[in-house]
Design brief:
binds glutathione, about 210 residues, alpha+beta, Glutathione S-transferase Yfyf (Class Pi), Chain A, domain 2, Glutaredoxin, 2 domains
Length: about 210
């Protein structure tokens, strides 16, 4: 792993998930903290991510945006960390299934719920997430299955657990995800991982350095 990795982030953002993944990988990386509405929307950053959002990573010549994609990419760049099931293993199916479910229907339903913009009952067939309740029930199915097999979505901890646990934890804190017992039991041990604690400590320290409102 020779090329430099740069993490573009804000300490109070989804960038926390990307940093957690970098810590899980044991990656050496530089951090570029951007401010909301300022450097995040400046031309030198929108040239990398036209969305003007964080996180993004630059790794040598490539740029990766979208937290789930960053997690999947890094898992493949650091195979020795075993953060994705082997490509030829049936476990890979669970990995893809729940990683994409979390990045798609979960993210969309939770955001829609928090904005009061959930699809009305007669339009649910057109919404990828269907209904908020169906998404919660499917998450209950996934987390119960994970708990029954040792606490993880696949045979071992993977980037899919990192991403789902981070989303559930964030959502339960902000009350956009119901605090169901299965969610709490699934998330609690994952949040004890040393890489999670280290990433949070680094982002808390970064937040303390930022000027108010940045
Ligand atoms: N789909 C993106 C969402 C990124 C996102 O919305 N980031 C927020 C911070 S959590 C952001 O940068 N907002 C600033 C803005 O839109 O101006 C991902 O998963 O990475």
């Amino acid at each position: 792993m020779s090329a430099t990795i740069t993490l573009y982030t804000h300490p109070w953002s989804r960038g926390r998930m990307a940093r957690w993944m970098l810590e899980e990988c044991g990656a050496a990386y530089e951090v570029q903290a951007l401010d909301y509405g300022g450097s995040m929307k400046a031309p030198d950053y929108t040239a990398l991510n036209p969305m003007g959002k964080v996180p993004a990573i630059r790794h040598g010549a490539v740029v990766v945006t979208e937290v789930a994609a960053i997690c999947a990419y890094l898992a493949e760049q650091f195979p020795e960390r075993r953060l994705a099931p082997p490509a030829d293993s049936p476990e890979r199916a669970h990995y893809y299934r729940w990683l994409f479910f979390a990045a798609g229907p979960v993210e969309a339903a939770v955001t829609a719920k928090s904005l009061g913009l959930l699809a009305p009952a007669e339009k649910r067939a057109q919404a990828g997430y269907g209904s908020y309740e169906d998404v919660m029930d499917t998450l209950e199915f996934a987390t119960r299955q994970a708990l029954a097999r040792g606490g993880h979505l696949c045979a071992q901890f993977t980037a899919a657990d990192l991403y789902l646990a981070a989303q559930l934890n964030w959502g339960m804190q902000f009350k956009t995800v119901e605090a169901r017992p299965a969610f709490q039991q699934y998330v609690a041990p994952i949040l004890q991982r040393p890489a999670y604690l280290q990433a949070n400590a680094l982002d808390d320290a970064l937040a303390a350095q930022l000027k108010p409102g940045a």
